[in-house]
């Protein structure tokens, strides 16, 4: 019986899934790819290389049905003599279309999607269908280029138009005109005409239409729309349509509508002012804020003879009229001359308010009350304040008294008696008596004070102030008089037989250390 040898076999997917490690020299065959590997005893299936691969042929490698040139190397197929490289059926480059043949048809009659055209047939077909040439224009990709300094003209035939779809950009590297539209038609009709049409299926009031924007950059290299002009629908109703031209500016960094030109008015909006360098003329009337009187003109009549309710008066005519009227005006018995209001001779001039006050240069008069109108501290009188009758009128009353009376260091005359002051000292008057400053006199004679103790309070005494010093400080007489004494001694204010200092419960010790006691022996020439 013959011997049968079978190789280990499986599908490629099972080999990969099971990934066995074959014995050294053991064959493993992929039944669905007709490829095989040879085991090493240590390497698993997925890490083994196929043994059926012709690894190299010259610089080329062959893997299955793939022939690969070295990295970055060309793969060249060269025939000998007049032979050709023959590709049976079809060939394909990359992921492009599959090519089945190469045709040399000048008229491209086959119009095949799987055939290539020869260079000669392409040239012949283009030349036959291009009219011979394209003038001076050249084409580079999607760019149409006119010769240097020449215009590029797009001229449709008849009533046709040049249709440009999508967003377009015109770039100019100079400050010359970027776009010039010229018409050569010589009638009186408008031309050339630029039309901006918004073809909306649902037009409505306040819809924006075309818009012209003026853009530039700021100092941070950011694009800014500095101004724009917009068309807008005011009323989209059939037969009553109204339009608006709207002007916007960037104001303080924000886009702001500054003007709106309607069919019946021109509006300046959002704080925009009107400045006219010349004359401002209104052909009909002028109405400010919409709620005032309508003005139809300006009159320069010094006598205001028109007396119009719709005319304004010039400054000069107002001044002339007012000056003339004031110079000759009279109201009742009063006459006005310049800035003077005059009552008739010997008549009172009475100012009466209706439930209010009369205010005269900072003074408010209300009935019999006069008060300051502003924040000043009082009323200044530049002159003497003299009553109209002697001994009749009062300054204040028993229920309303002045708080403080400030007068200069002069004489107060009370019914002929005078009180004067040198600006120092204090005089206090109370129900218990008057308190006079130290050194007070009766005529030219000083007042003698009573003592401060119980026994000396009814006796005239002389108070002597004693100041104690350790010798480190020197004081003037004025400084001593301002200080509080360290000790006060009371001595007789008169010569008597009773020493006052003993009644004041004070003692007096002589240099010898002997205490001077009461002396009632009679009047002495010198005593304490």
Report on this structure:
- Among the domains are: 60 residues, Seminal Fluid Protein  PDC-109 (Domain B) (Ribbon), CATH 2.10.10; 47 residues, no CATH class; 61 residues, no CATH class; 44 residues, no CATH class; 90 residues, no CATH class.
- The longest helix has 14 residues.
- It is mainly beta.
- The C terminus is likely disordered.
- A 5-stranded antiparallel sheet has the order 12-13-14-15-16, with no helix packed on it. Strands 1-2-3 form a 3-stranded mixed sheet. A 3-stranded antiparallel sheet has the order 19-20-21.
- A hairpin with a 5-residue loop joins strand 12 and strand 13.
- It is built from 5 helices and 33 strands.
Structural class: mainly beta
Describe the sheet with the most strands. 5 strands, antiparallel
Number of helices, where a helix is a run of at least 4 consecutive DSSP H or I residues: 5
Beta-strand level of the residues, as a percent range?
25-35%
Shape assignment: elongated
Q: Gap between N and C termini, in Å? A: 180 Å
- Estimate the helix proportion, in percent: under 10%
The beta-strand count equals 33
Radius of gyration equals: 64 Å
